[in-house]
Input
Amino acid sequence: MSTGYTTEKSFYVAEGDEGELYIFLKAKNDTPQAPKIIYDGKDHAIFLRNNTQKIILDYIHPDIRAKLRCAPQVVIVETILENIKDSYVANMQMVESIPLDWGQIGLVSWEEAALAE
Output
């Protein structure tokens, strides 16, 4: 993938008792700096963890999209196996459309992926 992006396929989104959203993913190297998630309400989001790490959150489940669109921020929880390594807040930036051709990165829509199974 020559675009400078990595793809996070194993992540989980959970909702807390007060409606806050948590995104659990595998622990990364380096320190997060001004983390932000760019999202257009569709299949994929981009997690800008720091200046050098652009991570595609691959296939946002349709049941979560509306909640994610409305969230001003989420809590990122980085794990090693079942242990929490780090947690921090990432601001959400909603956009009309993420200007990437997902097909060039090798990604399809949630619906297309479900049909392939």
Summary: The mean pLDDT is 86. The helical segments are 62-70, 102-105, 110-116.
